[in-house]
Amino acid sequence: MKKLTSTVTLFVFLSFLILSCNNSGNSKPKSETILEGSTTILVDETLKPIVEDQIQVFESLYKAKISIDAKSEAEVIQSLVKDSSRIAILPRKLTIEEMKIFEAKNIVPKTTPFAKDAIALIANKNNNDTLIALKDIIGVMQGKVQSNIKGLVFDNPNSSTARYINLLAGIKNFPQKGVFSFKTNNEVIQYVAKNDGMIGVVGVNFLSESSLEMKQYINKINVLEVKNDSDINYYAPTQNNIAEGKYPLARDLYIINCQGYSGLGMGFASFLAGEIGQRIVLKSGLVPVRTPSRKILIRKEINNDKK
Prior knowledge:
By secondary structure, the chain is α/β, with parallel strands linked by helices. The chain has 12 helices and 12 strands. It has 2 domains: 123 residues, Periplasmic binding protein-like II (D-Maltodextrin-Binding Protein, domain 2, 3-Layer(aba) Sandwich); 134 residues, Periplasmic binding protein-like II (D-Maltodextrin-Binding Protein, domain 2).
């Protein structure tokens, strides 16, 4: 009987030890809840302005401190996989291969869509033509010479904008000629503002939510209207055109929570997809995944007294 009891006790202890080891990477900080505590969010650099707006309001409402680590899309994925942070905001979902990495850690990533934005094509205002065909952009990416384009300028060869255009062109790497890159969207805007004939590829949010110091450069560029092969019309990346699916370079935005517990990742995701978060998206010029409600107040009396 004593031997049986000892065996059972040993089994329970070993089971507890195994569970503890498996969940050690998912342990929740004692000071963190869905609305309180501190954390860091990995953010695709092209989406930084809208995320900054969301965090500012979130922190004003709750006892939370959220830091932003803005990187290229490839760097965000790399950091997410390495557990540098368990929360990321990206313009795409995780791939099947990326999901398997987290499944091996007993973590099921929670993916929440919260907005639609777009990739904008910009040119110097000295360029008279404000229209461009998407096939011409793809042609440059495939190494073909285009008489109306001196070159394409990207923020980063590892960015989400580069991946998106590469995918359309059916290539994996930039061609040796006609394509250039910097590090940030702001550097692309500054370069295009100073150089005729160059086409910049940036996140549209950097144009609608630009800083004061960038206004002088944005005033020197035009946002181009783009035509897809399946349509004879050209469309600008406006809120309406993105919402109606007319602009050919639109994309969905997601918050991906890999914390594995009820922490700020869950709370911030709910906030982004909720009433306040969706209003912030709408005000920013992007497209919310659901239209925020509008309250109409009807007054029974109108006071026309003048004081």
